[in-house]
Amino acid sequence: MTNTTTAPLATTAPAASPAAPRPASSVVLGWLRRTPGDLLYLLTGMPVALVSTVVLWSLASLVTSLAGSVVLIPLALVALLAVLACARGFAHVERFRLAWTGERIPAPARAGSPLTPPAPTRTGPWWRWWDWLRDGQLWLDLLHGSIAIALATVTWSITVAWLATGLAGVSWWAWGDRAQAAAAPGTVSVAGIDSLPVVWQVLVGAALLVTLVPVARGLAFAHAAFARGTIGNSSVRALAQRVEVLTASRAAASDAEAAALRSLERDLHDGPQQRLVRMEMDLAATQRRLAAGDAEAAATALGEARQQAQEALAELRALSRGIAPPVLADRGLVAAVESLASRSAVPTTVRTTALGRVPSGVERAAYFVVAEALTNAAKHSGARAAVVDLAVSAAPEGRWLVVRVEDDGVGGADPASTTGTGLRGLAARAQAVDGALSVASPAGGPTVVEARLPLP
What ranges does the record give for the region Disordered, renumbered to this chain (predicted)? Predict the structure, then answer.
């Protein structure tokens, strides 16, 4: 029995017309709103940069010390991985701090994100460590964390001097006389500032505080520009990642198609072809028996031939479902998934939202994810119930069709195992359309298979 729940798709507001140029007053108000965040970022910049420099340089020194001995090279590699891990952590902290200023620095796409789906055959800790060492972004994170203290020292000094001088000027009328009286004999005035009249002291301080707004904005922007070039997802780096993803997707599509053709050829050879050969032999035997006048034996042979034809037809229908069911092309993904659920040996509930237009390649990939997951639930997991969710989610990188199949079986499914060829094939299908597949199946269950497939 299949239960289907459909939620309406939220309406989308019409696209706004291109915005007119912002007036100068709007820009100034925007700077004023950002000033507290700019000051908080700049004043904490020096301590954070000092911590990152000390940690990273200390670990780097440990790496060079360990690498001096052949016996300790494995420990040096572990220490190097620790350096890169710390560099990534400090990069996350820097992007978080820059958000205080209103500067949103997008994090670079890492391996395993929807933009960079992982190769399903490369698993294990050694491969992960190797991927870390060859990840150029981690080395850029290390560069940023190691030399950011130079820029932080300059901007922190300017901010502190500007802010302290401005505050001292506007409050000089309250404590300036006492400060001059308490000054040690022979104290030299800097540019004669403390000898200015109180009103000038206040005016100079006020001018410094007013100009602190654009100064802080400029200093924060300098940090943001440095971060975009090192720990941000620059356009060149994003394009290179996209080319790498498309290359992997093309290879995955080719491999998936070749594997599907080999499987179809093997299934045709082992199933319907053998049935048809047997039917041809039965028909030949029927012809001989009819020629000999043995009608009873001929009828028996015809019955066997008919049985072989029925079995061959059933196997061809089963194979056609592995190619593309007609209902998928005629009525769409939701109807095809509901048909799958109704035929499943495990009672399945289908929950959907209004999906809108789904490309045919994405529909096929989503259909086969559901089909394979329900087949595994029926054959291997001992599940008593399954739930299929079809939904559209929005993310900064675009819209995604999220296909989620959960069963309450015993779990233990592992795409990396030698027996997990079906799940590996699904990962290749998802990667072929620039998507990604994840499998969570702890011992004892539940098993959750989730595919994220891109939508236009």
Answer: 1-22
